[in-house]
Structures are given as C-alpha cells and as structure tokens.
Design a protein that fits this description.
Blueprint (H helix, E strand, L loop, with lengths): L1 H11 L8 H13 L5 H35 L15 H6 L1
Length: about 100
C-alpha cells in the first residue's frame, strides 16, 4: 500500500499538464505495485471525458493560487491603458 501511495504521489507531479497522462500514470503505479495492467483498460473508456474535468480543476486551482499569492504579497501591479501599450501614436508622443 505504501508503494502504491508513494509511486502515485511521485507520478502525479508530472501528469497535471499532459492530456491523457492519467493512463500512463495508472500503468506506472500498477506496474510498480505488481498488479495486472488490465485495470488500465477499464479506465481507458472514460478517461477522455474525465481528462477535461481534471484539466479544468487544475486551471482553477492554479488561478486561485495565483490570486492568493498576489493578495498575500500586498504589492499591486501597474495597470497600463491601451494608449500606453505598444507603439501607438499616443505612447510615442509621451516618450
């Protein structure tokens, strides 16, 4: 049980941003635990549907983490108006 937990934890770090990596991660964990790899076939049918949900959850978690860190940092970012961005005539005149 400890081998499955440790392998699953280590493999999960590298699979967050890769589509379809859940099947590869499951194969790695099952192989490390000495279990038959036929369990992957059971999940393969629904993995494509759940992969989008995992990706959406990952993106929401990253956004929440960025918002939390920005709030804890206390600094505010400089907001530029559209005229100040790029090579617009207004931006060139201000230089």
């Amino acid at each position: 049980m400890i081998t499955v937990f440790t392998t699953g934890l280590l493999v999960s770090f590298s699979t967050a941003g890769v589509p379809g990596a859940g099947l590869v991660a499951m194969t790695t964990v099952l192989g490390a635990a000495g279990l038959p790899l036929e369990g992957v076939a059971v999940v393969a049918g629904v993995d494509r549907f759940t992969d989008g949900l995992r990706t959406a959850l990952n993106v929401m978690g990253n956004c929440a983490n960025a918002a939390l860190l920005e709030r804890l940092d206390g600094r505010r970012t400089l907001t530029l108006s559209p005229d100040e961005i790029g090579d617009s005539p207004t931006a060139q005149a201000r230089r």
